[in-house]
Amino acid sequence: MNATDINFENSLSFARQLDAADPLRAYREEFYFPKVQDKQVIYFTGNSLGLQPKRTQQFVDDIMQDWRELAVEGHFYSNKPWWDYHERLAQPLAKVVGAQAREITVMNTLTVNLHLLMVSFYRPDQKRYKILCEEKAFPSDQYMFQSQLRFHGLDPDEALVEVKKREGEHYWRTEDVISKIEELGDSLALVLIGGVNYYNGQVFEMEAITAAGKKAGAFVGWDLAHAVGNVDLRLHDWGADFASWCSYKYMNSGPGNASGIYVNEQYLDRKDIPRFEGWWGTKKESRFLMKPTFEPMATADAWQISNAPVLALAPYLASLEIFEEVGMKAIIEKRNKIVAYLEYILHEIDKQVASRFEIITPEARGCQLSVFLHGEGRPLFDYLMKAGVIVDWREPNVIRLAPAPLYCSYEDMFQFGQILKAGIERNS
Length: 428
Description:
Distance between the termini: 39 Å
Strand order of the largest sheet: 4-10-9-8-7-5-6
CATH superfamily of the largest domain: Type I PLP-dependent aspartate aminotransferase-like (Major domain)
Strand content: 5-15%
Order of helices and strands: HEEEHHHEHEHHEHEHEHEEHHEEHEEEH
Number of helices: 14
């Protein structure tokens, strides 16, 4: 049954019925929740920082113990040797992003990785030099684009092209993205878009856009910060050239933690690919022979530069263990249902407070609903936070709500509606 076909009710008893029937309900107990006024919060900011899995501590403690007892020998003789620790993340991550394990590695942080990937996949010449992104991409991406273009001696005002939303609309239309790709034609060197927009929560039609970019002769990459662990991804089948993502949002790996990358198999095991290279990208078999010439790993590990930061990777591995147990299919099924219920609750409350807000997230969505608060402002946000509802504020007047399926409950959605209504009535 489609989630939108359910006859929802705005009642505590109905929300509890949904929770009782939820096959993922036990995983809520796998996470630590902050408290406000000694009460567990309603947490809507998994799109910014996921909650800590309880099993994370043991993964970190294992490394601390190995360091304490083995010191340098932990690289090779610990239970999970450090020198290849990152390889343990490739297979479970491949399932999450729809790739082959050899197309995946984990290293650095998101913007660092995008810069490194652009060494390989942004190679402008006199003819092809333009980059296509979405209007008002996440600021870090904008800074990256501008600095990359200046590095190549190009003017960002001329070489960076943004696909805009139509006048009066809150979302992008796929036909407009494809039309812009076709318009740029053989001047287009790179398409690099956020797969899920951070502001309005829109999921771009990545397969269609990838196909259009490739048809135009451009490289196509994806910033998947808000997509990984949230939406269905099939990077290998879509033929995307590369992608990168952070791990601390829906993947619950901890603040500022390590980033993952995907590099399509056609670029693997090749010495003719330009990239910035370092010791950990050279062949594992001969790495400690200290050869003066780089011999790339036959996997995405060739883009590794330095040895793996295992204390950062341990929480990521702990979280991936949960994703392995649950599977993306089950996560997406609950996501669809709980977001549909949240949308229903918002509409019901909206009727009771005389149309005070608007959902600007289109039907092409993941966990996030972005809500424009007409006639409301920061006082409502502040009220929600003090009431134990952790939400995210974005200027000029938007709150972002992201009920992560692994730890949010249907009762949370109902209780949020009641608190929201009380906050609006209090501020009226």
